[in-house]
């Protein structure tokens, strides 16, 4: 008997979420370095291979929303109405992402990341990849007509704005300030 399309994907998504939630709970309870993939698999009641079919590495378990983050940023460019200016669209999306990273209960995760060289390195490589994806989306938009350099710089500044705001005492004010600079730089590169 064949499962309806969608059911399999829902089950895979539920398993992925269960693994990620279990891993994060274990990391916070015991410490990131004290927990191995086998511990996560056992606690999640799945095989180690199942963990690796959903996550490429132990670090990826901490950043389980990585792909969603990247897609949201690129969609802020690609899905905005043609008449909508780019920078406000990016600003709104980054504001929503910052609300998530500064939500109640996120501080222990941030401390764990800051306390682990492996997680900080993974986060930096992730940020570079996000900036590349965003730069590609900017460069591909025929209505923007900016140089590759302007697209890469704007993408990197956008990713950095997110990081700065997540670590700031006043995330909203920090984001507003950085986006004023991004807007000025973007407008300065107009043909």
Automatic annotation (TrEMBL):
Protein keywords: DNA-binding, Transcription, Transcription regulation
Domain (HTH tetR-type) ranges: 13-73
Keyword Amino-acid biosynthesis belongs to the record: no
Keyword Lyase: no
GO MF annotation terms: DNA-binding transcription factor activity; transcription cis-regulatory region binding
Pfam short name (any one): TetR_N
DNA-binding region: 36-55
Name of the molecule in the record: TetR family transcriptional regulator
Organism of origin: Streptomyces glebosus
């Amino acid at each position: 008997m064949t499962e309806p399309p969608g059911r399999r994907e829902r089950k895979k998504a539920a398993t992925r979420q269960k693994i990620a939630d279990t891993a994060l709970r274990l990391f916070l309870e015991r410490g990131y370095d004290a927990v191995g993939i086998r511990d996560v698999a056992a606690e999640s009641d799945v095989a180690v291979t199942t963990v690796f079919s959903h996550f490429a590495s132990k670090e990826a378990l901490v950043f389980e929303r990585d792909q969603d983050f990247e897609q949201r940023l690129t969609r802020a460019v690609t899905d905005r109405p043609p008449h909508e200016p780019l920078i406000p669209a990016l600003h709104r999306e980054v504001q929503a992402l910052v609300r998530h990273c500064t939500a109640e209960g996120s501080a222990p995760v941030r401390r764990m990341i800051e306390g682990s060289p492996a997680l900080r390195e993974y986060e930096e490589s992730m940020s570079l990849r996000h900036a590349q994806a965003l730069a590609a989306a900017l460069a591909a938009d025929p209505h923007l007509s900016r140089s590759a350099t302007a697209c890469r710089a704007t993408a990197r500044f956008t990713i950095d704005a997110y990081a700065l705001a997540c670590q700031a005492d006043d995330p909203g004010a920090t984001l507003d300030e950085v986006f004023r600079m991004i807007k000025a730089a973007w407008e300065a590169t107009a043909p």
